Amino acid sequence: MKKGNGSKTPNHDSGLNFEAQLWAAADKMRGHMDASEYKHVCLGLRRLPPAPLIQKFTDTVAPMLKRISQNIHESRTLAALLPKLLSGELRVPQNLEVA
For the chain, what is the mean pLDDT? Predict the structure, then answer.
């Protein structure tokens, strides 16, 4: 798959770093898998959606992923506190204001 850049890897530079990372990962797999399997990897990479659509998806999903991460952190914190509250090791002040 030579392009005019003298490389065996196609030049799919759309300005997106993850696409370059995907092609670099595919290059690392070359020689470590059957040629027919590698062909399917490369063909899959060629079917990436257009950059504006990828950006819109990223902009939509990024806040959701951030909230998921925050929820996981909060859940772990609460899971660590619950046994201490139940055992009486940790007490909540009576005059504590809840926001």
Answer: 77
Instruction: Give the pLDDT band (50/70/90) at residue 78.
Output: very high
Q: Note down the domain range covering 64.
A: 50-86
pLDDT at 99 over 90: no
Handedness of CA 32, 38, 44, 47 (dihedral sign): positive
Please state the φ and ψ torsions of residue 89, each to the nearest 5 degrees: -65, -30
Report how far residue 1's alpha carbon sits from residue 30's, in angstroms, rounded to the nearest whole number: 13
Q: Is 1 exposed, middle or buried (0-12, 13-18, 19+ CB in 10 A)?
A: exposed
Residue 37 and residue 6 share a domain: yes
Which residue, 41, 48, 40, is CA-closest to 15? 48
